[in-house]
Amino acid sequence: MSFLIADRVKETSTSTGTGAFTLAGAVTGFQTFASGVGDGNGTFYAITDGIDWEIGSGTYFSSGTSLNRDTVLSSSNSGNKVNWGAGEKTVFVTYPASQAKYEFPPNVATPTSVTATGVVGGGFFVNEAPVDFLIVAGGAGGGTGASGYAGGGGGAGGLRTSFGSISGGGGSPETTFSALLNTSYTVTVGAGGATNTSGSSSVFNLISTTGGGVGGGGNATPYEGSSGGSGGGGGTYNTSTPVTNPGGAGTTNEGYAGGVGYNRNGVSANIASGGGGGAGGAGTDATAGVGGDGGDSLASSITGTSTYYAGGGGGGAYNGTIGVGGLNSGGNGARYTSPALADTPGVANTGGGGGGDTATGSSGGSGVVILRYPDGFTMTNTGGGLTFTTDSSSVPGYKITTFTAGTGSIEFTS
To answer: Domain spans of the chain?
Structure first.
């Protein structure tokens, strides 16, 4: 399967709703999608009935002469698929302004700036590859404890993305990266933090995410959670007052803060630590005998499958309720007795924080870097040093490269 842009491809359709369009034949003077794009290939399309409109990327199938509307780039329905009513529509291959790159021919003076307004002319594409990204740093290890005092849950690694509707810490998605062809870009996958250690940063070019903040100590300083991509949960200590130890702060547009811990206050059963922060929400505060849950993880479908990343680690407890880690990413907290429960680590390659422990603590999950780009381009790891896989079948028209370990340089070619 290839991604193609062809000239003079225009057909009509009377399809309705938000699904695939059945094409009814070429407009006079134009060619069909079957001739210009071909079976199973992706392309950029536009649909209009003279009032509403939709521009996106889709896949043409000769069986049923149908065009799947895979990804909407812009539309009269606030960027969502138009729910088409009855009547004839025009469907044609286009080159969206948001995807346009220019090399001006020799006989045309190069302007000081170029603004794409929806009408493309006079330029030639291919000197850059549009790359969507998901970058998650390593999660922090859970805080360590002693004699039943629980450490705070580890904060998740910071998360930044250009794909979907939301980024880490509630931020807006970032701009798709334009990678110059035959140009070297650095990729680093951040390691998860060991016990009582913050996570490491992940990087794509100049886009960097911050490692998760470690959870506060259980009767060991510092009791406060550390700051990071998402902050670590607050720990606990032996005091006759229910003073709460704050969680660490998250990094703006990467993650949230950790929850506060709850001290002994004269009764061992009160001991509980705060949950580590996640990319999708703050860690929960501990209450007497109840560990705080890890902050929410954040789902992304950049690979074509919805997967959760950057959940905070749960806080531990003496003999009460442990904190649960952020969904499918953060580790659970430990319980010292009645009965004892071991903490669990953050999930590898999701940047999850480790669970807070009453003894040695657990590690954070390693980070991940995921790049999504049109399948007409090829990515190579020049010089090696990176562990990765490239999937060219899950999302029609795109390749998805997932880096799971290492550091090195990459280049894109056409």
So the answer is: 10-99, 128-414
